[in-house]
User: What shape does this take?
Amino acid sequence: MSVGPTVQIVGGGLAGCEAAWQLARRGVRVRLIEMRPRCSTGAHSTDRLAELICSNSLGSALPDRASGMLIGELRRCGSLLLSIAERCAVPAGDALAVDRQSFAEEVTRAISSIPDVEILREEATGLPDPPAIVASGPLTSPALAAALTAVTGEEHLFFYDAIAPVVDGETLDRAVVFSASRRGRGELPEGDYLNCPFMREEYERFIDALVSAERAPLREFERAIDGGVRAGPGPFFEGCLPLEVLAARGREAPAFGPLRPVGLRDPRTGRRPYAALQLRREDAAGTRFNLVGCQTNLRPAEQERVFRLVPGLERARFVRFGQMHRNTFVCGPKVVGRTLEMKARPGVWIAGQLAGVEGYLGNIATGLAAAWDVARHLRGEPPALWPAETMIGALLAAVAGSDPDTFQPIKASLGLLPPLPNPPAGRPERSRLLTERGRAALEEFLADRDRT
Ligand SMILES: Cc1cc2nc3c(=O)[nH]c(=O)nc-3n(C[C@H](O)[C@H](O)[C@H](O)COP(=O)(O)OP(=O)(O)OC[C@H]3O[C@@H](n4cnc5c(N)ncnc54)[C@H](O)[C@@H]3O)c2cc1C
Assistant: This one.
């Protein structure tokens, strides 16, 4: 039976669910406030906790990549959501991708079964009283966003993320698309991805259609920053540009980016295609496929017209269209400290995308870190700063320490880590040393059990 105050957590997404679990494990009572299904975010479509609204990939699981490093740290720190993601994994080459439905179901079941976690299905319209964690995500409801702005004294920043279409696996032209993973890595013997190979003329035709296609209109509050939408980089997160914006910057940019053919060989010609659009499984059975890197804000009818020009997708049935969304986050360096506690409202922490951290794994990690800090606070202990050599520590340091004037959500990257004193010339060796150093720093941090 838990004693002490109840911690209120706003948002039953990735960060909020991880935080609830971590607090409950430490004997802290939690009230988790989730507004769905009563109020919609406009992008979520179920009432499940931890629903993934775009890609089903959590990123590369290779241990010497930034996301792989985060996976290792989350596993070592006993993350609930990572363990569920690993149980719900679908084949995706080097990446950890999940069956999104099973993932959300399992998280919902796990959190609902904790006696010390009460789940309230209602919208929080103001900042909760301390102790609390606000993890209401990039689609925080307008009332809560306004309350946050009033407390922080800072205007929220808005930018846009775009999501990629999903097509029905039965409608692909299997005589054209072929299975293979770039560089041959993957779980399935034939390769985890399906690939749509372009010849040069096909690519040119596709790009012409893409850049001239009609885009979905922006809503009133989005028009204020339309300059960025059309011209970029503007309000987009650079790692998730709509394909049409990327192509408008340079016709060959997609062929060197998301449509790069590196490591692929078209079995029909025995040669590398000019470009290739990859399709990633959305579910373990492979009934639905995500158009990798093809996030878009074209009108739905235009998406059908344009993407059916891709070899192999001529008769594709779209089970989900790409779309663009508002993405809300606070100016981290002004609003929170390195433990994610709000400067203007001590006793309230901000976690997840709202804190200015981009990416599923990073969002889970901030939920975990905020919960650990709340637990220490409730025990009357001072904060324990995560070492900057760990990826979790580097993310927190970047959120709190970036230039507030140019702040954009931070994604895990080896570049965030403090440089090595004597870096070797080769990138693989440098990555290996950075990740080894991070592992050692985490062990040292965890060795002091009070910190956790
Ligand atoms: C359209 C879009 C696509 C994205 N695609 C990707 C991607 O492909 N890969 C990736 O790594 N990251 C992606 N992100 C970024 C981010 O990683 C995810 O949004 C991630 O789910 C954020 O985790 P979170 O816990 O911060 O918020 P969420 O998982 O969104 O959870 C927040 C929860 O809070 C609830 N909520 C909001 N306001 C209130 C309120 N006032 N009261 C009560 N509950 C409230 C919401 O209903 C939601 O369930 C995307 C973001 C957006 C907007």
Notes: The radius of gyration is 22 Å. The longest strand covers residues 157-163. Residues 63 and 72 are 7 Å apart (CA to CA). The chain has two domains: 7-156+330-451, 162-326.
